[in-house]
Amino acid sequence: MKHIIYSIICLLTSVLVLVGCQKEAINPDIEGHWQLLEFTTKADNQVHKCERIYYSIQLWVVEVAEKQGPFELTPFRGRYNYDEASNTITMTDMSTYSPENSVPAEVWQLEPYGLNSVNTTFNVISVDSHSMTLESDYAILKFKKF
Predict the structure, then answer these.
(1) Predicted TM-score of the model (pTM)
(2) Residues with Cβ < 8 Å from 85, sequence gap 6 or more?
(3) Is 125:133 a contact under the CB 8 Å cutoff?
(4) How does pLDDT run along the chain (146 residues), one tens digit per residue?
(5) In Å, what is the CA distance from 115 to each residue of 85, 94, 104, 107?
(6) How many whole angstroms from its chain centre is CA 4?
(7) What is the DSSP track for 91-138?
(8) What stretch of H or E contains 32?
(9) How many angstroms separate the CA atoms of 90 and 34, rounded?
């Protein structure tokens, strides 16, 4: 009888530990898959319409890529951090993501994604379950949830 009770206690403890160890989103409104609709460069107030440009934001990682788009852009990955106190997102270390040959992105490669640096901080202007607007010193980006 003691063996059965001990087994049940061990099973319940294991289940509780596994449930408690699940990774949780840093900010569930921001994390997910987004389609970049357009970005407006602040220097010239020019609106750049985007075709098939996507951002994936998940647990400390951001990926930007063009999916079956006309320009065959290089995809990049970087680090993502959300600061709740300042309501800002930081994307850093943008580079190609081949583990053996990771190469930092060049500014000209990032510009079609609405970025002008491998390290960018965005103010979160608005975000909900359907849309998001971010503002950096370079541009204002408008997204829809994908």
Answers:
(1) 0.82
(2) none
(3) yes
(4) 655 554 455 454 554 444 445 555 668 899 999 999 999 999 999 999 999 999 999 989 999 999 998 999 999 999 999 999 999 999 999 999 876 788 999 999 999 999 999 999 999 999 999 999 999 999 999 999 98
(5) 23, 10, 14, 8
(6) 47
(7) EEEEE---TTS--BPPHHHHGGGT-SSSSEEEEEEEE-SSEEEEE-SS
(8) strand 32-41
(9) 16
Alpha-carbon distance 80 to 88, whole Å? 11
Rounded distance between C-alpha atoms, residue 121 and residue 83, angstroms: 10
Beta strand pairing call for 46-58 and 61-66: antiparallel
Residue 80 · residue 63 · CB < 8 Å: no
> For residue 134, which of 25, 28, 30, 26 has the smallest C-alpha distance?
30
Q: Is 13 helix (H, G, I), strand (E, B) or coil?
A: helix
Which residue type is seen at 61? V
3-state secondary structure of 3: helix
Bridge-based pairing of strands 61-66 and 76-83 is antiparallel
